[in-house]
Amino acid sequence: MKYTYYGQSCFLLEAAGKKLLFDPFISHNPLAKHINIKSIEADYILVSHGHGDHVADLVELAKQTQATVIAMPEITDWASKQGVEKVHGMNFGKFTFDWGAVRMVPATHSSGLPDGSYGGNPAGFVLEVDGKQIYFAGDTGLTIEMKVLADIYNLDYAILPIGGNYTMDVDDALIATKYFDCDKVIGVHYNTFPVIEIDTKVAVDKFEREKKTLLLPEIGETINL
Fold this sequence. Notes:
Elements: E1 2-5, E2 11-15, E3 18-22, E4 44-46, H1 52-55, H2 58-65, E5 68-71, H3 73-81, E6 87-89, E7 94-96, E8 101-106, E9 123-129, E10 132-136, H4 148-152, E11 157-161, H5 170-180, E12 184-188, H6 200-209, E13 213-215, E14 222-224
Parallel strand pairs: 3-4, 4-5, 5-6, 10-11, 11-12, 12-13
Antiparallel strand pairs: 1-2, 1-14, 2-3, 7-8, 8-9, 9-10
């Protein structure tokens, strides 16, 4: 399984012969100006909520790739009205695709769309694919509901926001890993804006002291999971 980071909370998972793109925000991110979105391929695009820093490139990339958009019904309806042809609306539940299973789980955040319309509930995703279980929290604060995941899954990786202000910070993310019992974390949603800038070395060291791993790939970098 491969993970490619595109900045903010946007990344690509390549697994089970499919390319799964999450929260596409690339062309509007100055830190990702070296990424050519015309070269991005995707079979599915998963969207955690409707904020611009998660959907700015959604319509363009969905049309370019002919990917199926997986998101709350309010977001898939919004995308459909802009000409996106393939959508799969979900809410807090589980669905099995031909490549693996997806469960939408709650996130503590908000979810307005760029045009001001309602974006449904903010969410995260747990994926079961290629023999691995991966949790992407979306934009969320620390919440006790994360403990439920430990009753359902044996998570291999957790992809967590660590920038603070709008979401969990590094300390909260560490607490979260204890809630759902996962020692391998990939950090997202940090350093894009001044209010979410962090000291990455301090962050990695905090995880190491707890005998956990925090991976912070560079924008455009691909790592193997």
